[in-house]
Every structure is written in C-alpha cells, then in structure tokens.
Amino acid sequence: MAIAHIAVLTAALVLPVTVPYAVAAVRRRDEFRRRRACPGSSRLDRALRDVDPGVLTSRLGPVPIEWLAGELRRLDRQRRGGVTLESEVWQEAVVRAYDERLCMACQCLGVSENLRPLDGLDREFERMRVEDALQAAGLELR
How far is Cα 131 from Cα 34, in angstroms, rounded to an integer? Predict the structure, then answer.
C-alpha cells in the first residue's frame, strides 16, 4: 500500500513538470523543421535582410577601441556557433557586422584593409589577414 502511495505521489509531482517540456520540445522540433524547409521566412530573418551595419555604426561617431574589441569578440563568438548557424540571413548579418567592426578597428589602429570590395573566398582570406594584423597591433580578438 505504501509503494502505491509513493508511485501516485511521484507521478503527481513529476507529470505537471515534465509534460509541458515534452510538448514544447515537440513544437520546437516542428518549428525547426519548418524553418529549415523555408530559410529566410521568419520575421527576424526578413528584418535582418535589410540591416546595413555601416549606416548604424556611422551614426555613432568615433568609438573607443575597447568597445570595438568587445564587439569583435562578441560577433566572432556568434559567427562561429550558436543561434546564428540556424539562419543563413542571420549568419550573413553577423558576418557583415563583424567585417564592419574590423574596418572600424583598422581605421582606429592605422591598419590597411580591403574588406569592402571583396566577396567570397577572397573576403575570407582578407578577413584572416586583417585579424592577424589587428592582433599584431595589440588588439585582442579572442
């Protein structure tokens, strides 16, 4: 009789906690599948498609190099993993913002860069060269 009471009490305590999580996991799985089938369909993706980080940062005026270093570290973490990998548009926006901050840091430290006119693999190589040059100039990126 005591074992039956323990089983009922355990079920009464565990079920209200676990059932909502199970339902949320199933709903999230369906949403993830839907987003994979149709990339760029969420409101966030549509909003990020039109964002130009250059316009946003040009309004800031001169910014401290410490702020730029923090932004570069944050954006680097985002572009290498996490939520950004779920959305191509978000990944693109993060990479554009990262490149814009790299250009701003190059201006602050007097490092030459040619990121803006390049695209594709050339831009990747130039990004790596600029990161190395900024680290050689004393900016801690990672």
Answer: 36
Residue-wise pLDDT tens digits, 28-61: 776 666 666 555 555 655 665 555 555 555 555 6
pTM: 0.57
Domain positions in the chain:
1-37, 40-136
Quote the percentage of the chain above a pLDDT of 70: 73
HSE of 98, CA atoms in CB hemisphere, 13 A: 24
Which residue is it, tokens 């005591």? Answer: 2
Angstrom distance (rounded) from CA 118 to CA 127: 10
Q: Considering only CA atoms, which of 105, 75, 110 is closest in space to residue 93? A: 75
